[in-house]
Write a structure and sequence with these properties.
Elements lengths: L1 H34 L4 H5 L5 H11 L5 H13 L13 H7 L1 H29 L3
């Protein structure tokens, strides 16, 4: 029973840190997009007219105050709406999920190699008398 409570406590701490991390990263991502220039330029491009810029800025909500934009950004993210891909002109979440399995495979292989490298390093240190 003690083991179960320790595991629950550990998982609770990890979940709490994940939430803290998310609330630390989301403002950073949001601000980087806005600090890098007008996000409307990514959609319209250099050939757009002033009217095109205003129309897109209004349609995407970039004409609203930054706190309101951030609030809408968070609400959409919670609902799983991460916007549309500029390259593929479709929602981004399905695009990311189609490559999730390949990413997971790469992560598992990388972790296995890291564990193997640590084991080899430990054995080597033992042979040399450093352990």
């Amino acid at each position: 029973m003690l083991y179960v409570s320790l595991v629950i406590a550990y998982l609770s701490r990890r979940l709490a840190w994940a939430v803290v991390l998310l609330f630390g990263i989301t403002p950073a991502v949001f601000l980087v997009v806005h600090l890098s220039g007008d996000p409307t330029a990514l959609y319209v491009g250099p050939e757009g007219t002033r009217q095109d810029y205003e129309m897109v800025r209004t349609a995407l909500g970039f004409d609203r105050p930054l706190p309101e934009q951030y609030g809408r950004f968070l609400l959409r993210a919670v609902r799983g709406d991460f916007g549309r891909s500029l390259r593929h002109q479709q929602p981004t979440l399905p695009l990311v999920l189609t490559h999730f399995l390949a990413t997971l495979k790469l992560a598992v292989v990388a972790m296995a190699l890291a564990v193997d490298a640590r084991a080899v390093g430990t054995m080597h240190a033992d042979v040399l008398g450093w352990a």
